[in-house]
Each structure stands twice: as structure tokens, then as C-alpha cells.
Amino acid sequence: MPDQLINLTIDGAPVSVPPGTLVIEAAKQAGVLVPHYCYHPGLQVAGVCRMCLVEIEQAPKLQIACATTVTEGMVVKTQGPAAKSARQSVLEFLLINHPLDCPICDQAGECELQDFVFQEGRQGTRYGEYAKRFNPVEDFGPDVLYVPNRCILCTRCVRFMEDVAQEPVLNVSERGDRAFIGIHPEARLDHPWAGNVVDLCPVGSLLSKDFLHKARAWELDKTASICTGCSQGCNISLDTRDEVVVRVRPRPNLDVNRYFICDHGRMHYRWMNRGDRIEAPLIRRDGELQATDWDEAFDRVVGILRGAAEGRKAVALVSPGASSEALAEAKRLLSGYSWTGAFQVVMGEEAPLAGVPNLALRAERAPNATGAESLGYTRDYAAAIAAAKTAAVVLVLDDPDCAVETDGALLYLGTVLGSDAPCRRADVVLPIANVAEEEGTFVNRDGREQRYYQAKPAPGMAQPAAWVLGQLVDAMGLAGATR
Amino acid sequence: MTVLEDYLPIFTGKTLEELHTILARYPNKQAALLPTLWIAQRERGWISDRTMAEVAEVLGVTPAYVKGVVTFYTMYHQHPVGKNFVQVCTTSPCNIRGAEGVVKAFLEQTGAGDAGATSQDGKWTIVEVECLGACGFATPVLVNDDFLENVTPEKVPEIVKKYR
Amino acid sequence: MGFPHKPHPKETVVLSQYFGDADARTYKGWTKRGGYQALAQALKTDPVAVTDIVKESGLRGRGGAGFPTGLKWSFMPKEKKKAHYLCVNADESEPGTFKDREIMRWTPHALLEGTAIAAHAIRAEVVYIYIRGEFTEPWTIMEQALAEANAAGVFGTIKVYLHRGAGAYICGEETALMNSIEGKRGNPRIKPPFPAAAGLFGLPTTINNVETLAAVPHIITRGAAWYKSLCLSNPKSTGTKLFSVCGHVQRPGNYEVTLGFPLKDLIYDMCGGPPAGRTLKACIPGGSSVPILTREETEACLLDYEGVVERGSMLGSGGVIVFDDSADMVYQIMRLAKFYAHESCAQCTQCREGTAWTTKILERILAGQGKPKDLDLLLDLAENMTGKTICVLSDSCAAPVVSGIKKFRGEFEAYLAGKRQVVMV
Q1: Are A291 and A385 in a shared domain?
Q2: Which of A64, A75, A263, C117 would bridge with A195, disulfide CB 3.0–4.6 Å?
């Protein structure tokens, strides 16, 4: 029997939530965002910023919504004069030392201080005659800069490192208005998940060196995607500016990565912007690969496939980063052959996020190994390479360093073609989109199917691999084939 | 020019035994942090970053955590101080009994210059502190661990002479 | 009495009977003076009954909050499922207050006896006595007394430890005190949870002030009715209190009077009033965190919890700070704001920034650069700093500012008009 829901009223709107829900969370159900800084659903409650003060009927004083649990019949008002005035005063206090850095601050446009001051702050400052507190910028570690002047001491970063990463390398140092976020000289902020403090920081105090001064928040388009760094399948947002991926940020998913991504995934995007892409289909003519159009390229492939005798071998060497759709079509395309499909996965060290169950940078550094396996591809890559030698058709999907040699036909679908890549000996090279340029599905290590979306256009004539292979399947009349 | 010396651990031998006695008083090691820092300061006169790292290791916490605690409590010195560390209360109850004059007298008599700075001869650091809890005995002054009461500017030369 | 003064005839000597008597510090000396009989009696009494006696007596927390002690003890879980803790708050740092140090350095065994009784009443297995780091003499004396008490088996199986603070006024706040014992920064905690439910190390905890506990043995031996009868005004304020009188008086010190005693008599009769030729201008009756009283209010004030509230202030810790006409109220209020700014733990925005900003405005007024709107600004900041934070340090900074501007506005305006200047060293 499920728990009875608690009924309360927030800004006149009736809300029903499970017992134990915080007022600030219940408010979301009423469509009310209670302004706050230190509160974060992924962190333990601190109650220090005092920004979320609200009026609760029958309570003698204003209460912080982030630390108050709902009770039956509670009446909460967030827009009354007392609460608004209290929040306005908090903003004023925060701004007395916070520098007017917006023109040079990365956070501008996605800054919670800007947002709430604009919404509820005072028009001008009453602190005009005094100097603001000044401390120089500090380098905390591989990617994180700390700008003490902008810090509002919400302590999200300290709590993240202490409770979620479980490596307390950040502290609050000193007392009173001299306080700042400190680090011990013998320890750097180099935890594999440390980059999350930059996301958590509501203002531009903790900054990513990688993103420093690269783009303005309002110039960014944000697209939902799935991280390709490993098999965890963290939900991310690809932020693009002028169709270049400039930043990766986590998207909340309570079942996979909660609110976080690891630094490996965070930095794993530059390859999406490579300029040395294959931009047109290439077919071998007079011993050389020459650019052509899709129609001719498809004709050539169909010719190769039909030309190979029935019952002979085909080998598919695929990337475990290819979409499930592409992998399925690739298999379908070769359904007339005795088929071997394999992939190899780069392995690395696992790095768990201790405070979250089942969340880690996984040893398998690929997003769709599980998807590939479920479609029948194996990890016996060496065997597949051996079989390729005598195969009639070898299809290489998005594996540019694939060191394959074959007596048969070599079809290569990829994004890049290295100058001495074995795939240069392919008969046909078909340009495909990378993960940022297409829509598709990955299956993570837990068997969860997740969709990613297109963040930028593919260069030249490149198309999603699923489309390319789908066209070929149609041309071969294999649309109904299953294996 | 600074010469990097090898750091000699504090918590060895008898001091380590003392630490174990203290650890027995708390259900976890972290809780022994304040008393452990007192021992460290007693032994070395101040608490350096390196000492913080040693304390962290001994108690199973991080150096950053220790630093956060050290910087919170004003009685832990984060840099070396003079042989005589003098704390003079100047909060209002003592202030209206002339406490600031006592500070001034100490600064002049010891040659310490500014409050917080150490005198040239390394013997004195004078600081103004908040209420020492002896307001009826204004002005109270702590010279290292000696709690002096009813100090006036006139009594300062005597005190300085005694401790010099 | 105000040590080293002799007891004044108008004092009601209970806690301070042996102040100045070095022999009373020893276990032998204390038992000779009737000590530890209350404990023997209490140990034969059911813990709940002991709590009821203390409830009946009307004893209220003497650290500043004035919360009924017996009631606080009764908040501990009825069913004993986990270990219980008792913390003794000897962090005395409220400006104007210096009574707990006297109790510890003259009658340490009184404190230990009260502690033992309290530990019995709340069924505590472990006691931490948190002594502020600057109290070097009380520390040494308490160490010695505790060793003697343990040798004599005073605490039975209860473990009692001294824990030394390291310079933080805020650690006198009960939840910050617990964090400090846990080896953390002395940050106050948000409530709920309350200490009796989840306190030290997450276990049920009671925190009591030194003076509160020192009164307990007397209540046990002489009875709740006796303690209740010690009442000069409001029946909700019973017993005696040590008032620490300091500032501009001829005979500063601790004076023990029955609650309800006139503040006027305390200042003039017992302490001799301000020095010759000077007149009383202002008085803070309960430690610097309570509103300032004018001379008229002071002279009409009765020293009990309700009586002081009637005059517009609070009994607080009973630290009576007296200002005569030579005092610069603006400067002293600045100095108090500076105190709070220095002691703010930095968690809450209003306190962290507000205490410093308040200090800056006052410093500027004192430097002759103040503007008339500064007073309104100070009052507005004070309102924003009141009732909105985890603990009341922020409110405590606001109290002298608000009462100071209200009652001594002339002194502020003199600075604003350029008629007065302090040279800020």
C-alpha cells in the first residue's frame, strides 16, 4: 500500500507529494521555483545561503524551503512581502563583495545570481563607498580555476567533493567575510569527477579552464546527447556555438548519472569537431579513390555485394560507438552471407563516483558495446580480423585504425580517413556523421536504451551511418531480412 | 633564501602515545582533531601546511579538511609567532576600561611594531583578541598560557620585563 | 561576591559561597564542605524523578537562552535505544560575562557534581566538558578536579572528558559546540534535528551551561520548593544568578542575587556605581547580544527573565556592562559589531556580509564621513539580519545597533554633523 500523499498549498496552488518531501521540491510541482543557491537535489542540505526563505502560515519566522519538510495542510507563500524582502536582502548582501564581472565572466547568461537579482534584486547598490574584498584567482587543478571574489560561499563544491566524490579536497577556510574556498597545497583538485564543481557553482567562481572565455552562454545551442566516453551512458548536453561543440555538460538522469559526468567524458568532445573529415563518398577508379555522389557510390556497393557469390563469408568490423540502428542495418545488409561481426573496445581504468551507486567512469571506453553484443557482434576481434583475410566482403564501420587486410572487397564507412590507414585500400569509402551530427540509440552497460540527438550538421555530404546502410539495404531488397 | 628541510614527524614516541590516549576519548578519529592540533602547536609553535598533512594522515582525514578546521579557530597559529604570544582583549567591556591603551603599551614596550607582527628580536607577537571572559578583571592579557588580570598600561613594562 | 570582593549583604550566596577559598577546589575540601551528598542522593533517585525535581524548581538555562532545564532534560528519549551524551558548555565568550570561569576555578567540584547528577538524569554514558581555549587556568584546575573525582569514583561508569576549544565565540552555540567536539569547524547546525533527537555524533544529547549545572546539587539537597522560593518578582524566574558586572563601575565582579533583584541596586549599592563624578549613561544587562538600556530603563529594571524583557532587553547570560557618560556609544557599538564580524562562522549570507558591512558603516561614521542615510541603512540591515539565519549571532549584532541608534541617536548625529571625530588608529 503506497504512502499517503501529503496535501499542501504553495502560492495558492494545491500540491500532493510523498511524505518527507522538502518544500522546495514540492514547490516545483506547483510550478514555483523558489530562488536558492546552496540547495541542490544531488547534495546534502546545507541551509546556508538563506535565499529560499518563504512564509509558512503559523510559523513565527520565515523558513528555508530547502530544509523544511511538508506537513498536511501547510500553506506556503513565496511571493509575500516578507519573503521577497528577505530574499532581496540576501541578494544585496551577496552583491556587496561580488564584483561586477559580468562582461568578463563565463557564467554570464547562465548565472543564478544574475537571474535572481534581475528577478528580485534591488535596483542599485547601497555599498558604494567601500572597497570590495579582493583575492587573486587560484588554480585548483587540471581543469578548475577558482575566482574567490565571485564566490558566494554556497559550499556546493565542498559538499560535492566531501559527500559525493568522497574525497574532501576542498574546504571553507577562515571565518566571517574573510572566508573562501580553500585547498591544501599538497592536494590538487584532480579527482576524476572534479569537473562537476564547475557545473554546480551557481556563479562564475569555479570555472573550467577548458571552456574559459570560449563562448557566451547565450550563443550556445544545447542538444541532448549521450556521452561516448565509456559504457556508463551518462546523459549529457552538447553545447555548440556556430556548429562547433564547445562544451559538454551533464543532463540529469536519476537512474543513470544523477546530475554528474566524469572529467573524461567532459573533455571527450574535441574529436567531434575534427576538420579532416571525409566529405564525399569515394569510389576506387583507376586504382585511386575518387569523390563521387551517393547514387554512384551506392551503385558501386550494390554491385560489389551482388557480385560476391552466395554463401561466401562477410566480416563486419564495427566500432562499439556506432549507433544501434547503424549496427542493425549493417548486419541486415550482410544477411546474405556467412557472417562474422566483431568490435574491439579500448579499455581504461575505472573511476567510480563513490557517493552514487552504480556510477563510474567504466573500464570499457565505448558507449554501445552492449548494443553491439545484443545484436550479435562479438568481442573476438582477432578472430574476425583473421576471417577477414579470406572474406568476400569486409565492412568496416567507423573504425579508422582498423588494421584489416582482405582478398575480398573492403567497404569502409567512417568519419575520417587517415593518410596511412589500412582503410585507404577500401573499394568504397562512405562518409558518415559522428555522434554529434546524428540521432541514434546507444545501449549502456546496464542494458538501458538511450537516445541521442543531432547537435550540429555533418560536414559535406556525410550522412548518418544508419541512413547510409539503410539505403543500401533497400537497394539490395533486404529490408525485411532478419538474422 | 629558504632551505627545504626534511620534515620531522611530530607523532612519534611519547607524543604518539599521547595521541592514542586522546583517540580513546572519541568514537572516531576525526573528533580528535582539535586536541591533536593543540599537541602539534605545542610541539612546533605553529601549524604549517606540512604539519596539517601529517595530522591528516594520522587521523585519516584529508589535509584540506584539516586546513579548513585550522583556519576556523583563531588560536591555532598558521605562521610562526614570537617567543611570547600576547593576546589583549579589546572588546567593549574592556575597551571602555582602556584596553586599547594596553595594546599600545605592549607594542611600544616590546618594539613589535604593528599588532600581529613579530618583533625584530623574535620575542614578541602582540595581537588584539575578542572577549577573553574576564571582563570584570579588565584588561585581561594572555601571555602564552599565563592569564594575567587587571592589566593597565602602567603595569605593562613590568610584564614585558618579566617575560622577555 | 565579586571576587576578590567580600560578599555584599544583599547577595544571596549559593553558588558563590566558596569563591576565593582555595581549599574548596580539592575533592577533600569539597566533601568537607558538604559536597557530593547531592550526588549520592540523586543516584538513589530515579532519573525521571530527578528531572522532575529540576523541572519543579524552575531552573532555567544560565548560558543565555533561559530555557527551562528540567524540560530540556525531558526531551531526551524515554526509551533508551542509543548512547546518550551530555555536553557541558564552558565556552563562555559572551562579552560582559565571566561567571563560568569563576565557578570552574573556585568550585570545580560543584560543576562536576552537577554534571554527574545531570548525566544520571539523562542517562548519559559520556560527558564532554567543552572549555574555551583561552581559559588556561580553569582548564588546569578542572583537569586536576576531574582526576580527583574519577579517582574517587564520582562518575561511576560514565566517561567524562575535557575538550579544549581553540578560539571561536560561536562554539558557545550548542550545535556549533557539538560540531567542534566532532572535530569540525564550529558551524551551527540547522534545526531540526534537535540535539535530544540527534546531537553529538548523531546521538541524543543535552547541552547545559556551567552555571546551570552548578545549581543542580543545591536543588537536590535543599529541594525544588526552596529553589522556587528564591524569587523576587516573576514566579517563572526562580533561583539565584551570578551577574558579571563590568565596565564603568567601581567594584566590578560577579554578584549573586535572587532573580527579580533590582538592577539599580546591583549597579549602585553592590558595585558602587560609576566612578566619582560620572553618571550612568547606558547598560547592557545580559551580555552584548541583548539590546542596550538607557539610564531610566536600567534604573527601573528587575533582573529576571520577564522583567528585563519588559524593559526592552533580555536577561541573557547576565553579563552586565555599564557605560557611564564618558563612554562613546557609537565607538562601543562599532566595537561590538566588529566583534560579531570577527566571530561570524560564515555560513549564512546575512551574517557573513552584514556584520562586516555594519562595522564598515560605523567606522566611517566615526571617521567623520557618515551620511544621514547611514542610520536608516544600519537599521534596515539590522532588520534583514534578524530572524533569518541558522543561529542568532546575526541577530546579536543587530541588537546593539538598533537599540543604540534608537536610544542614543544624538551621539550618532553628532558624528554625522561633524561635531565629533574619533581618530581611528
Answers
A1: yes
A2: A263
